[in-house]
């Protein structure tokens, strides 16, 4: 069901290559003025999904409805798209590239030129507008890529891994820009970097082997998965190592998941009080020399790891 505040609705979206299904019956809705992160490990189907949304790849089955209008056959009119590996002409200036992108979207030269000027200023490239793209830094190129995707004032901006090829400075520049853009445009972007998703997005979608395994507002996904976490670190002696091994084998009641971490272990537990009591008693009984005991909540990274685990 499309609601008034929805920009795009995807139903049973599927992509098959011969016998291999790479996106399987995916359903989600993007709402107006919200920023959504599409998360998933390598090969989960993020790029395939994005290319279908951008109209570059034909779905095997399923429906993509844009702005409640199934009759608009060319989604490129309402969608701005930045591919994972954009191809720039190094010899063009940023301004020339923007006008070129605008002309490809059907803008007149005058309209493209006006929009180019405004957007280049918006992404902090006004001073570099007449310089060749070949001399731009990674962050500048990516900001130009985002600007060209906005040239026809799309309702939805789709970015495939916009931060993955950038150094920390470039990443910070692009994050700041997206934070600004998401105030007035609906944004969907794919990423491996969970920290970036947490810092920027309102909603998340997690794909695993082509299937959507988690979706919704970040706060709801967090609440749904809210579980206490206990981190224990010990001295590196034989007794402590043996004791930890027994906890890692996962036979203890109340422990949902136990992972080895540097110098210790990390337990996701059902009932914090019960688990803490059992743990402390066991530490005392076994004479384990702990160096750290930390109590917290599952992060988005834990939720992601849980969602994509086999
Ligand atoms: N043209 C194709 N023919 C056959 N299989 C394909 C084709 N394109 C993609 N795939 C497969 O589809 C799966 C999903 O690929 P996709 O690029 O969408 O994943 P991704 O989540 O974007 O991964 P990454 O994070 O590595 O970019 C992969 O297993 C890939 O090998």
From TrEMBL:
Kindly give the InterPro entries that the UniProt entry links to this protein: AAA+_ATPase, ABC_transporter-like_ATP-bd, ABC_transporter-like_CS, DrrA1/2-like_C, P-loop_NTPase
Q: Which Pfam families match?
A: ABC_tran, DrrA1-3_C
Annotated GO molecular function terms are: ATP binding; ATP hydrolysis activity
Among its keywords, does the record have Cell membrane? no
Q: Which UniProt keywords apply?
A: ATP-binding, Nucleotide-binding, Transport
Residue span(s) of domain ABC transporter: 8-234
SMART domains per UniProt: AAA (SM00382)
Q: Show the CDD domains listed in the entry.
A: ABC_DR_subfamily_A (cd03230)
Leader sequence range is none
Q: Member of which family? A: Belongs to the ABC transporter superfamily.
Query: Which named protein is this?
Result: ABC-2 type transport system ATP-binding protein
Record the organism: Paenibacillus methanolicus
Upper classification of the organism: Bacteria, Bacillati, Bacillota, Bacilli, Bacillales
């Amino acid at each position: 069901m499309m609601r008034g505040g929805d920009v795009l609705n995807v139903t049973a979206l599927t992509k098959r290559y011969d016998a291999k299904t790479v996106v399987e019956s995916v359903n989600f809705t993007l709402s107006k003025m919200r920023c959504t992160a599409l998360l998933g490990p390598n090969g989960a189907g993020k790029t395939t999904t994005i290319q279908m949304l951008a109209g570059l790849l034909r779905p095997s089955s399923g429906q993509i409805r844009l702005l409640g209008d199934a009759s608009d056959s060319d989604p490129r009119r309402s969608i701005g798209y930045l591919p994972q590996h954009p191809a720039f002409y190094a010899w063009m200036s940023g301004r020339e590239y923007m006008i070129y992108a605008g002309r490809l979207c059907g803008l007149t030269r005058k309209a493209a030129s006006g929009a180019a000027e405004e957007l280049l200023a918006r992404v902090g490239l006004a001073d570099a507008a007449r310089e060749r793209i070949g001399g731009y830094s990674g962050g500048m190129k990516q900001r130009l890529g985002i600007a060209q995707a906005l040239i026809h004032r799309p309702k939805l901006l789709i970015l495939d891994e916009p931060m993955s090829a950038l150094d920390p400075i470039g990443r910070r520049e692009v994050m700041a820009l997206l934070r600004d853009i998401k105030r007035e445009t609906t944004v969907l972007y794919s990423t491996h970097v969970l920290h970036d998703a947490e810092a920027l997005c309102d909603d998340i979608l997690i794909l695993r082997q082509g299937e959507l395994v988690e979706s919704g507002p970040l706060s709801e996904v967090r609440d749904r998965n809210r579980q206490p976490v206990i981190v224990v670190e010990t001295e590196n002696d034989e007794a402590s190592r043996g004791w930890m091994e027994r906890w890692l084998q996962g036979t203890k009641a109340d422990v949902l998941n136990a992972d080895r971490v540097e110098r210790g272990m990390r337990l996701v537990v059902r009932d914090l009080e019960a688990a803490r009591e059992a743990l402390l008693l066991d530490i005392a009984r076994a004479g384990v020399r702990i160096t750290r005991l930390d109590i917290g909540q599952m992060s988005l990274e834990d939720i992601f790891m849980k969602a994509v685990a086999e």
